[in-house]
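Fig. S4 source data, part A: sequence.
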Amino acid sequence: MTTILPDATEQIEQKPPPKRSPTKNTARKRDRRFAYVMLSPTLVVVGLLMAYPFYIAIDLSLRGGNVRSLAGVTDLPLSWGNYVAVLTDSGLLADIWRSAVYTLGVLAPAFFLGLLLALLLNQKFPGRRIFRPLVLIPWAVPGVAVSAAFVWMFDASYGVVNYLLRTVGLIDENIAWLADADTAMFAVIVPTIWKYYPFFTLVLLAALQAIPGEQYEAAQLDGAGTWKQFQHVTWPAVRTASSLAIVITGIGIFREFDFIFPLTGGGPNEATQTLAIRIYNEAFQFFELGLAAALGVITMAIAGSVLLAAQRFIRQTD
């Protein structure tokens, strides 16, 4: 009498999946609770610091009437008048468009410049330890100080930018960079790029140094050139870090104020008036605090929507 043994593959398939040990699950839950307990004081403080200004902004934006002072705001009626006034204003789309142009005009060059410098600083050459901190100096300079320097550089009469362009023969006469509506946006984009590219350099350089050298050696053995190595080794390794840096920096640039206001104040003829400048003008020049608060909430909603969309994109490409 022969005994037929079941197939080994059937035995493996019929084998139930291993169950997690109750001890490990309990320990994991205990560690998670301990982490939340340790973080709770910080979370409470940060939550209060964020929640109260957020509440004030929303409450102020919903107060009808001419809100020119925080005193007695609670006596004003609640209404959607400020939001209706903002959303029906024909200038809102223009402000959003200028904010988008400014953000993309800074983000793309700053990223590519930061990536190029990160690739260069990742190479071995004499004096690399000296050049690395020097590249990061612009990131440590206050934005107002940078703006003051570029006001002199872009000056129409004796600015160094006009001098250099005349020297190389690109222009015949001086250009009023900050006073011309056609060049003002470019004049505020350039110093912002100078300020933000070191952040990309720092993030991407850290990601590049985490790539094992064996991957490049294997790519070279397979006959991959410089571009193929970047395409199949470097970029996949820094893609996630690049996406996060672009999102964080993009939101910061979208609400940037330190460069535009000292340079142009939003002019000339509102050529550089972004949403951040519009909020400041409504609040402190026209003293329309309710409209300024409504614009602030709308700006926050736009930035939050972009952040959520970017998170989905990063998760899909990761």
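Fig. S4 source data, part B ends here. The mean pLDDT is 84.
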